[in-house]
Design a protein that fits this description.
The complex is a heterodimer of chains A (about 100) and B (about 150). Chain A contains three helices and four strands. Chain A has about 100 residues and is an alpha+beta fold. Chain A has one domain. In chain A, strands 2-1-4 form a three-stranded antiparallel sheet, covered by helices on one side. The longest helix of chain A has 11 residues. Chain A starts with a strand and ends in a 9-residue tail after the last strand. Chain B has about 150 residues and is an alpha/beta fold. Classes of the chains: A alpha+beta (about 100), B alpha/beta (about 150). The interface between A and B is large, with 44 and 52 residues.
Amino acid sequence: MLKKLSLLRDQVEDWNAYPFCVPVIGNLDSLFLTSRICFFAGDNGSGKSTLLEAIAAHYGFGPEGGNRNFGGLNTTNSNNSIAPLLPCLRLSLRQRMSTMLL
Amino acid sequence: MLEAFVAATYVDNVAVSNSYSRLDVHEHSHGETFFTVLEQKFQCNRLFLLDEPEAALSPQRELAFLVLLHDTLHKHKDAQFIISGHSPLLLGYPEAQILSFDGGKIHEIEYEDLQCVQIARRFLNHRQNFLQQLLNDPPRLFPNEE
């Protein structure tokens, strides 16, 4: 289970660049997931999809979704936009999950 | 390292539309197709990431979706969901952790304190007053307009 999500703040190069200029991303420290079902709620533009996309990208999915077999990182601009966040994001797991792909 | 990988699935409307060519889209609506895909994909222990699934679901199907979540979480003890959205129906799932992205910093929030829940409740309970207030003193959508 994905248990904790941290922004490695000392790895951030430019706080004014997207997506760090989105307040919830810029203010992110550590986020603890305490349930196997977690909702990201908030207004349009509050950063929900940005963070979800970043988690997806961390696992190798492109912004259009799908699974790793045909998703993967592609070269569209929308994908590049969260790219600076990826090396600064650490995901911690409680235990290993199945490695079977869809 | 291979062991470090975690199986995850990232589903949104676009992905579903693109990935399920096997379903005859002429015979199934977008919402039906979306739901069928979810039913098929949820049959395993995996991290599922869903971006505003309510966009494709009618209220009836949102309720069916809650049942599907419930079944999946009980059948597959390592399944996990992270779901973005603002549906008062979906957010009502009893065991859910809710993180609010409003106000500039992510924080845990109770269901009853969610803005989308409060707005929906006020609207449904006092629709006429609500609309009267809203439309008689409308917020400015186009501030630069004279």
